[in-house]
Write a structure and sequence with these properties.
The complex is a heterodimer.
Chain A (H helix, E strand, L loop, with lengths): L1 H17 L3 E4 L14 E4 L6 E5 L4 E5 L4 H10 L2 E2 L13 H7 L6 H4 L2 H4 E8 L4 E5 L11 H5 L7 E9 L1 E2 L3 E8 L2 H12 L5 E7 L2 E8 L1 H11 L2 E2 L3 H9 L12 E5 L12 E5 L4 E5 L4 H10 L3 E6 L13 H14 L15
Chain B lengths: L11 H12 L7 E2 L2 H4 L16 E3 L4 H14 L3 E4 L16 E4 L6 E5 L4 E4 L5 H8 L4 E2 L12 H7 L6 H4 L6 E7 L5 E5 L10 H5 L8 E8 L1 E2 L3 E9 L2 H13 L6 E6 H11 L9 E9 L1 H17 L4 E4 L3 H12 L1 H8 L2 E4 L9 H15 L3 E6 L4 E8 L6 H18 L15 H7 L2 H14 L14 H6 L19
Parallel strand pairs in B: 2-4, 3-4
Antiparallel strand pairs in B: 1-2, 5-6, 6-10, 7-11, 8-9, 8-10, 12-14, 12-15, 13-14, 13-17, 16-18, 17-18
The structure holds flavin-adenine dinucleotide.
């Protein structure tokens, strides 16, 4: 396996010396995500497999090219999971891609995001150096937290080689219910419930229904189920997976798909088109033809940001524009990790 | 690094110039430089290191923070931020040629937003004050360091502080949403947001635990959690530390994530018992405190499972708290461990290595051997659930050479922590204290990356310089060699 690392590092050093761009790629299931794909493809898929998994340490260390379904199966066998429920968007999705994209699934609001479970990373930076940060223990404050910085950096700071992640036990019981509810009611309920000690693990409003998943001890789930009422959704597992992987009907609509990450209590967004509300109100998916400016202003008013997730016109940028001081810090960080600017340039922002 | 209390001669001309520049916009009492006024700031919780600052500035609001930074930046004066000064690694140790900026006066809770379960607070607010203010809403701030009655939330962010309950509820980094930060140049950046993520790089994570090296935090939005309905605690005694370690592993293997899981060894229980009268079994080699929270029935079920694991792991005694008073009494001893160390010894030195749990027996055994070798007693308190060890080495600073011996002992524990796959610091930070051990944990390229990150925020190295990340030259001088889990990772790299 060291030979694969050497090859990756070599490719990066070559590209850096010739100032040619590289586009880091795992399973390619998220090619649609982010800015334009530039440069020659640098694949991580050969560097795969679980390196170490110790269920009693709640830690798994795996190579970036490991397919997510494979990793999850290994964990499931020992009664554990990746609690951030990463979207797959296809069976070839890799761990490295999931981390670099920084996307988390329905459980995010209640269990945490990818970055929250990152314990350590091994990476090759834009100079071709093989570096390790963090480690395999739950608590670690030696040096800056580069492992978490890598989550969501869209491959612009380095190639993730390995990651160690915190795992969690699968819940003993899980139950999905739904109640007919307007958007406004759903937002109010999601927030009200989140303020109570209930075993929530996912919430979603779509098609006039509020879906709620409860996970945890049998007794806790039973009690919450009685408290929340509604009707049982028998194929709950399928519903949440389809939501996670964007296979619900909503995601087949023709309009551009926007992702707005905002304050959970923000009122239903006044934008044309259909919406799905997730994460206790903090995530809004909007299928809309409204212009970017309008959408971004709406997100900013609600204390958050908007990204053009699928479709639409990407020429004005995909992600929410950063204020100048923030952009400068981003550029300096990029410079620190990738001085030649060859790794996934423009995938996040032009100039990064 | 070995402890110092250097009295470098104060550059009075410079001191006057800086104080004058600050007094242009700060009231007179907010700029201190007389020896007796600045002396109280000479150290943080790691009192073996002392240094009187050239000037102390006490801002009351963001505008003042900004102007202090702008002024220092222009004059190229280094700045050290300070919260409550409870840090245990010398992170807030002042510089004799620098300004110490205390954020203690910025201690207002600006807003508690009940519907969105967040609180917006100034950096000088005490950790516990947030939970107290949120309590009427049935909410609380989860990270609960033992120092929570004193330490500031700004300091918690800078150290990524943890607490008894972080295995289940996370560290500071998992419980904050947004920061307002001023760079050394005095520019405001808002990091994070009111949603669950933000555009761009995860600077919220990068800032957390950065030990005041990247910016000065002036406002924090924290996430509040609903207070659990009910909690109970199991106290289990073991006649062998190994058995206690195994019990910890079995709890996790049973799929239980306890709300708290702490271990204390015999010397610790012996030290705290007279202090708190917790009723600990004093003949036990180790005791575990294992907490469950949730709804009443869930807790009842989980406690049964915990008890079963403890018995199966060979516990000699298992008790369960049956009231809040009793539960608090179980915890009281754990919370009093540090002060108790101070009672049975003139000085103590707290280590903070984190190790994979399975290495516990090996590490504890090695610590016991080192304790004999150095002739220094050592109490072991342990955030067992997440592998964070706090060996407290007991020593007497008045005995010549004993502090040096203690530091050597400590450095060996840290080296061992790295060798078993752990880290030199779980929650207290590197500061000045563990800076040489950083050369052991990271190779030169990794250290260079840290310096590059620092430079991205602070080109002229003016914010808390000399802390957290050693220069490569320093690593050479101290002759420390990078090790990783017992093996040399880059045999081909030049050794500095
Ligand atoms: C008895 C005792 C028990 C402890 N128990 C725990 C524990 O259980 N868990 C734990 O994690 N820690 C513990 N600690 C350590 C300490 O309390 C924590 O590290 C705490 O977070 C420090 O907060 P402070 O306000 O005292 O910070 P300080 O000591 O004043 O400063 C710490 C660091 O933060 C920086 N800083 C402070 N404020 C700011 C700001 N606003 N912006 C930027 N940088 C800033 C400083 O420059 C310094 O580098 C304990 C300490 C004691 C004495």
């Amino acid at each position: 396996m060291q030979d694969i690392i050497d090859q990756l590092a070599h490719a990066i050093r070559e590209a850096a010396s010739h100032k040619t761009c590289l586009r880091i790629r795992g399973g390619g299931t998220k090619d649609f995500y982010g800015g334009p794909l530039r440069g020659e493809s640098l694949s991580t898929t050969a560097y795969r497999g679980v390196i170490d998994y110790e269920p009693t340490e709640l830690v798994v260390i795996a190579r970036a090219g490991t397919p997510l379904p494979e990793l999850e199966a290994v964990l499931r066998e020992k009664g554990q999971m990746l609690a951030f429920e990463p979207p797959h968007f296809g069976s070839s999705a890799t761990l490295g891609g999931a981390i670099a994209a920084g996307l988390s699934g329905p459980r995010r609001a209640y269990a945490g995001a990818v970055r929250d479970f990152m314990l350590g990373v091994r990476m090759v930076d834009g100079k071709g150096s093989d570096l390790r940060f963090g480690g395999r223990v739950m608590k670690n404050v030696a040096g800056y937290d580069i492992s978490r910085l890598m989550a969501g950096s869209l491959g612009t700071l380095g190639v993730i080689l390995e990651a160690s992640l915190k795992t969690l036990p699968l819940p003993a019981a899980e139950f999905t219910l739904r109640r007919e509810q307007t958007q406004a009611e759903a937002i109010a309920l999601m927030n009200e419930w989140a303020g109570k000690p209930l075993p929530l693990s996912a919430t979603c409003h779509t098609g006039g229904f509020l879906y709620v998943r409860l996970s945890g001890a049998v007794a806790a789930v039973r009690a919450a189920r009685e408290k929340l009422g509604g009707e049982e959704v028998t194929d709950g597992t399928t519903f949440w997976r389809e939501l996670r992987d964007q296979r619900l009907d909503f995601f087949t609509l023709p309009e551009p798909l926007w992702r707005l990450s905002i304050k959970s209590t923000a009122a239903a967004l006044d934008l044309p088109g259909e919406q799905i509300i997730e994460w206790g109100g903090a995530l809004r998916w909007v299928r809309t033809i409204a212009d970017a400016q309008t959408i971004r202003e709406a997100a900013a008013r609600c204390g958050g940001h908007a990204a053009l997730f699928r479709g639409g016109d990407k020429t004005t940028g995909v992600f929410h524009p950063l204020p100048p001081v923030m952009m400068r810090l981003h550029q300096r960080l990029k410079q620190a990790f990738d001085p030649a600017g060859i790794l996934n340039p423009g995938r996040m922002y032009e100039g990064l | 690094m070995s402890a110092t209390s250097t009295a470098a001669p104060v550059d009075f001309i410079r001191q006057q110039a800086v104080a004058r520049a600050l007094r242009v916009f700060l009231p007179e009492p907010a700029v201190l430089f007389e020896h007796e006024d600045v002396k109280p700031y000479e150290c943080d919780g790691l009192s073996a290191y002392r240094q009187v600052p050239m000037v102390v500035a006490l801002p009351e609001n963001e505008q003042q923070v900004q102007r202090i930074l702008q002024t220092c930046y222009e004059m190229r004066v280094p700045v050290v931020a300070r919260g409550a000064g409870t840090g245990l690694s010398g992170g807030a140790l002042p510089l004799g040629n620098g300004v110490l900026m205390s954020l203690a006066k910025m201690m207002r809770i600006l807003d508690i937003d009940r519907p969105s379960r967040t609180a917006r607070v100034q950096p000088g607010v005490r950790n516990l004050a947030i939970s107290e203010a949120a309590a009427p809403y049935g909410l609380y701030y989860a990270p609960d360091p033992s120092s929570q009655i004193a330490c500031s939330i700004g300091g918690n962010v800078a150290e990524n502080a943890g607490g008894m309950h972080c295995l289940k509820y996370g560290l500071t980094v998992h419980n904050i949403m947004k920061l307002r930060v001023f760079t050394i140049e005095g520019e405001l950046v808002e990091i994070g947001g009111e949603g669950l993520d933000a555009a761009g790089y995860d600077l919220l994570a990068l800032m957390t635990g950065s030990e005041g090296m990247l910016g000065v935090v002036t406002e924090i939005t924290v996430r509040l959690l609903p207070a659990p309905e009910y909690a109970q605690c199991v106290l289990a005694a073991f006649d062998d530390v190994n058995k206690a370690g195994n019990a910890v592993e079995r709890i996790i293997a049973a799929g239980i994530i306890p709300a708290g899981l702490e271990m204390m060894d015999k010397i610790t229980t012996g030290a705290v018992e007279p202090f708190v009268n917790a009723g600990y079994p004093l003949d036990a080699e180790a005791i575990l405190l294992c907490e469950s929270d949730g709804n009443t029935q869930e807790v009842a079920e989980e406690i049964e499972r915990m008890k079963a694991v403890m018995h199966a792991s060979g516990a000699t005694e298992v008790r369960v708290s049956h009231s809040e008073v009793e539960r608090n009494r179980f915890w009281a001893g754990r919370k009093a461990a540090f002060p108790a160390a101070g009672r049975i010894s003139p000085d103590y030195y707290c280590m903070d290595g984190t190790i994979p749990r399975k290495a516990l027996a090996r590490v504890l055994l090695a610590i016991a051997e080192l304790s004999k070798e150095y002739g220094l007693r050592c109490m072991n308190v342990f955030h067992a659930g997440d592998g964070n060890l706090h060996p407290l080495i007991l020593y007497d600073a008045n005995i010549p050479g004993e502090l040096e011996k203690t530091e050597e002992f400590g450095a060996k524990i840290l080296k061992l922590s790295i060798e078993v796959g752990g880290t030199i610091t779980g929650e207290h930070g590197v500061g000045v204290e563990k800076i040489d051990s950083m050369c052991v944990q990271f190779n030169p390229l990794e250290l260079e990356t840290f310096h590059a990150v620092k430079a991205a925020f602070d080109e002229h190295t003016l914010l808390n310089p000399g802390k957290a990340v050693p220069t490569l030259r320093r690593c050479v001088e101290f002759g420390h060699m990078h090790v990783r889990a017992g093996q040399e990772k880059f045999p081909d790299l030049p050794r500095f």
